[in-house]
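Handout, page 2. Input:
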Amino acid sequence: MADETKAPEQTAAPQERPAQERSAQERSLQERSPQERPQGRSEGGRPGGDRPRFGGGRGPGGPREGGPGGRKFFRRKKVCKFCTEKIEDINYKDYRLLGQFVAESGKIVPRRLTGVCAPHQHRLSSAIKQARNIALLPFAGRAS
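Output:
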């Protein structure tokens, strides 16, 4: 693939030199068939390959069609647990409730994962911090 993109005068130059002047790497690359050549490297030794440099693929900035790599299920919108259950105040002594919003590593789980609304997330995080200070919740997870 890399040979096709070079100009004709560039590809002919290494072949015109006598065999003694060519490096061992050049000779080994020329003696191999295209299937035996190392993948992802051009003759210059730089990484290349068939992968596009910018855009063109999935991920940020890639195409957004609903093709084979699209979403396979419908994601339901998360709702605030405290709003639905009409919990007015978040008590720092309720360590079982607070423990649901603390990850195994000890970090407070963010809103986008739990679905808690902003006012309740602020109250929740302060309650978790209070519970940590009086040793109802751990500051960090298990040491492994």
